[in-house]
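Lab manual, section 2.4: Encoding a predicted structure.

Procedure: take the sequence of the chain (696 residues), apply the prediction step described in section 2.3, and record the output as structure tokens. A sample record is shown.
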Amino acid sequence: MNRLGRVYLILFVLLAPLYWDNLFAGEKNSPRLRKLDFTPFQKELNQFSTHRATEIEELLRDATILDLQAALKAGKLTSEELTLFFLDRIQRFDENLRSYTELNPNALVEARTADALRARGIVHSHLHGIPINLKDNIDTKSPLHTTGGAEILLNHSPDQDAELVTSLRSAGAVILGKASLSEFAGALTMDPTGANAVSGAGVNPYHPGLEVSGSSSGSAISTSAFLTTASIGTETSGSLISPASQNGCVSMKPSLGMVSGRGIIPLVRFQDSAGPITRNVTDAAIMLEIIDTKAVAYLPLLNRDALQDVSVGVLRDEILWPSPSPLPLEFFSEQYTIMQRIDRGLQKSHASPRAIQLPSEELKSLSRLIFIGLAQDTVGYLVNAGAPVTSLSDLRIYNEQQPETRVPFGQLLVTYACSMTGEFADQVGSEENDLPRQYEQLALQVRRQAADILDRIFADNQIDLIVSLANDQSPLYATAGYPAITIPLGLDKAGSPIGVTLIGKQGEDVKLLARAFAFEQATKYRINPGKPYRQIHRFQGVTFDLQSPNIHFGNTLVLKSAKKQIKSKPIRQEIKGSVLGMQTGDLNQDSIPEAYIFVRDAEDADSLLIYTFNNQDALTRIDFPHLTDTVGYYGNDHFSVNATTIERIYPLYTSDPGDIRPTGKSRQITYQLKQNTEGVHLEQIQSNERDSPVIE
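Recorded output:
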């Protein structure tokens, strides 16, 4: 990355959290132009058992596609159930995450077909009956659409599937729908990344204040958040590797030409490449094996010892010092920790690492190439699709006519590209209609330059592999058409996922995947969004089992309990925060215990959920009475459960809406559990105002 690029990166890192926190405060986002339609599956979703959903969730947590195939083969799971599981999660969570632009109305039909074939002994591949999604710049015929995230293509359904989609269908994969993206592969705007007119701005599953990156943002978000098994995205320069790294996923950008680009909305057709985004390297190998036109068997060659004695060049200075400017010691410490994780992984996998330096030579004309690609390749697709434009200027004018709908996040890059293509025509001394020939010459020239730089790095340092961070070197490997793969390194101090990226030699995709597998198995750094919570309490002959994924984007808790040999139906509760803990007791001394679950929301305020038995065979929730005195009440409740009472304490503020400020006092309300003919309920027995403030 050059000096100017580093400056922009630092500014973005500093400003992005402020922008994103403001954008998604109160779940704000631009409205979808096409709402996700659950009508074709709603009956089945309504009948889908929460207990079964929990079982599948436990199975999926660290599973590979091979594990899922084993469960399908053993009859422990069906493709229909797995598809319903993902559809259920999409319905509950994707309005917050915005990782889908559209659902496949035939998803359940495809799953049932896969199950029927399996019952007859027909299994087409490792992907048979496995639900996946596709980035919405990959052609899919009706009833699905292919929009590139753009309003101008909202109702566009190509006549036929992209070549890679045909391969996936032949392999028996179930298509869940289309994944969101940075509109037109990030060539419209990058503020924010992962945003488009059709579905809005994508949100990171680890925290809404974190960057999602692009352009394959929806593929990475949905995969990380368990809204799909895996996804196919595309890359021009970092568009697979960067969002995968930012969202805790594995992604492989294959060597140029390994996967057919036929039927994909292009940005720069001379270097665009489709590739998998998954939660592990095994699944990436399975996905690539299906879409690769070279018929390579990647899976059997995955090997835990594939890095042993391999000469690895580590861009140590680039990783430790991502900016030439002096940085605080804390930032260096963060980078040093990341470097330590990489070093441990290489050491445990018995590689032979050495520090290497990047040559001072930088690629010329890369940004110009991308903008001319937008004008030539992307607009060419629009013309062939019947869109009402014939040039990039037409597209800019079309969007300006209804900006709030067509470009809700602006089109700064399109405006800049219009200027850039004109300048390019002037510089080469040709008319604008001569751009196609000049464009091809420029693309091949930049590709050769990038390949020459990488070849010299490999040869001069006598290495077989380059280690970098995230998509730092995407201008080199992507432009050259060389393969790269990113593997999760866990989370940084801010809770943001990070990824190490391995860059291989041209055509050595098999070796690269095997080496990535070796690093992954030696480290297993990946962490799912949210730390799962599990607590089991046994009290007076009753077992309470509490589970929660503790994820920010739509959290749930599941409470199961059993009294003696009588099992109660599990309760699934949607919550806005995270589970802190559970306490059990019998406050009303009726020999039927209660479960008290403490929850903390995004504002660090506590909530208390209470469940007890109804007729000793079913769980029922006990709600707190409405407050009768709300003067000065603005939330931030804190709860404590004592031997026979529950205390609720909250700070009091001034009652003037124009001058809300703390009074330095708080209110304490005491409740007891009471029994009447309708069941157990909470009754307020005392309310006191305290002079001392609540400890925040």
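Check your result against the sample. The longest helix spans residues 435-461.
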